[in-house]
Design a protein that fits this description.
This protein is α+β, with helices and mostly antiparallel strands. It is built from eight helices and 16 strands.
Length: 352
């Protein structure tokens, strides 16, 4: 081994020894500092159980299988019922039909705060206003919305959703301003901030929706001309046998999903007119409804000579009735393709 190799070996060994010594010194110094600050312990900090919690029973998260109230464990170990979790979730609304106004309270409020507002402002020109109480979710995520009318507890927010169109027309700028004025007064009285959409955008949305609804709306009227000598009891018996139900001056035909068709009797000198009406967007099954109306009218015609007529007073032939069927099927298809299937909640809301 020459002098150069020996020199390199000595230098390399010395460097390694110096590095090991430095690392040992750093580890010793950090352990000493940690011991002075936190004390010494041989327990694993991830597995150790604090003494004040050692007597508590360990529970696993899960879903409640019954209708009992959900419970919350407080910091001192007490178990209390959380009333918010017992409230009814807010009804689902179609955002195409509503504009939202959001109140954010400085201090959480209970139902006594917003009940006078709800009682005084349930609708505007027959356009529905739906209220929901908002509570922050326990994990700090989305706000949980509950039916405001039956809310128990205290809520940080209140949402008022206003219908923007129905058969009375679109929400106008005057109606919007009236509602906003009353909402602002409520917000001022309850130390709340109010968030609301821009009026011009809402009015434009409402007008567009109203025009689309007008193009889709269909009310189908058919009439059965009953001779005056036919007794009312006979007509009523036939209607009841066919599934029709009388309420006041109006008769209705319905199934489990809702009203199918309605009928009103018009008395005139020498005749009696049974006027059947199918409100297509609101009918649970318009095509079936037409079949039921045609069936009962045909039976009256066969037994009493009572012809079926349209709104113009023209007697309907078999060919004319087939034409009505085809037009109705096409109209139902247009409604469904537009997202307003006849009988659905959104359709009944828009065509109310």
């Amino acid at each position: 081994m020459n002098d150069l190799q020996l020199t390199l070996l000595i230098v390399g060994g010395g460097g390694i020894a110096a590095m090991i010594g430095y690392n040992w010194w750093q580890d010793f110094r950090l352990r000493k500092t940690a011991s002075e600050r936190f004390g010494e312990s041989t327990e694993d900090p991830l597995l150790a159980v604090p003494a004040q919690q050692a007597s508590r029973e360990r529970t696993e998260p899960g879903f409640h299988g019954d209708n009992s109230p959900m419970d919350v464990v407080t910091d001192d170990g007490a178990v209390v019922s959380d009333p918010v979790l017992n409230n009814r979730p807010a009804e689902s609304i179609d955002q195409r039909l509503f504009a939202d106004f959001i109140f954010r309270f400085d201090e959480p409020q209970d139902e006594n705060a917003w009940k006078p507002l709800m009682d005084a402002l349930e609708q505007i020109n027959r356009k529905k206003i739906v209220y929901a109480a908002g509570v922050q979710s326990p994990d700090g995520g989305d706000v949980l919305w509950f039916t405001a009318a039956a809310f128990q507890g205290r809520a940080q927010q209140l949402r008022a959703s206003i219908q923007i169109a129905n058969r009375k027309g679109p929400l106008s700028s005057i109606e919007f301003s009236e509602v906003l004025t009353r909402f602002r007064r409520f917000a001022d009285d309850h130390n709340a901030e109010i968030e609301f959409p821009e009026m011009r955008e809402v009015v434009k949305r409402a007008e567009t929706l109203d025009q689309a609804a007008a193009a889709l709306d269909t009310l189908l009227g058919l009439h059965c001309l009953m001779p005056e000598q036919v007794d009312d009891a006979v007509v009523s018996s036939a209607l009841i046998k066919a599934g029709w139900v009388q309420k006041g001056h109006q008769w209705s035909l319905a199934d489990a999903f809702g009203t199918l068709a309605t009928m009103v009797v018009h008395q005139a000198p020498g005749k009696r007119l049974l006027s059947f009406n199918i409100d297509v967007p609101n009918s649970a099954d318009p095509v079936r409804s037409l079949g039921d109306v045609v069936s009962i009218c045909h039976s009256f015609n066969a037994e009493f000579g009572a012809p079926m007529m349209d709104d113009s007073g023209r007697t309907l032939s078999t060919q004319a009735i087939e034409g009505i069927y085809n037009q109705l099927i096409e109209r139902v298809r247009h409604l469904t393709d537009s997202g307003f299937k006849p009988g659905d909640p959104s359709s009944r809301m828009l065509f109310s």
